[in-house]
Amino acid sequence: MDVQLTGPAVITQNGDISYKAVVDGEAIPCRFSTETLEDIDPANRMDDVLSLFEANRSELLGIAEKKIREGKIEDGKVFVFTADLAT
C-alpha cells in the first residue's frame, strides 16, 4: 500500500482540519476534529486549530497513516478523534 500524506492542512466549515492523503493513487481526506486538536495539546488548547495541527503534525499524521494502513477508512475519509490519541 502506497500512502502519501500530501496536505495541505485546511480548516473545514465546522472548524476541523482536513489534510489530503493519497492512497494507491486515490485522494483520501483525513479529518481531525477540533476536540482532538485541543486534546492533543491541552496546554495550548486556546490556540487556533491550524496552529494546534501544525504544532502536532507528526503525531497526528502518524495516527492517520496508521488508520489508513489498518483499513479504517469510512465513507472515503479517515477520521481522527480524541480516542485515537491513546493508541
UniProtKB/TrEMBL annotation:
Top-level taxon: Bacteria
InterPro entries referenced in this protein's UniProt entry, alphabetically: DUF1488 (IPR009962), Shew3726-like_sf (IPR036692)
Pfam families assigned: DUF1488
Protein name: Uncharacterized protein
Organism: Salinisphaera japonica YTM-1
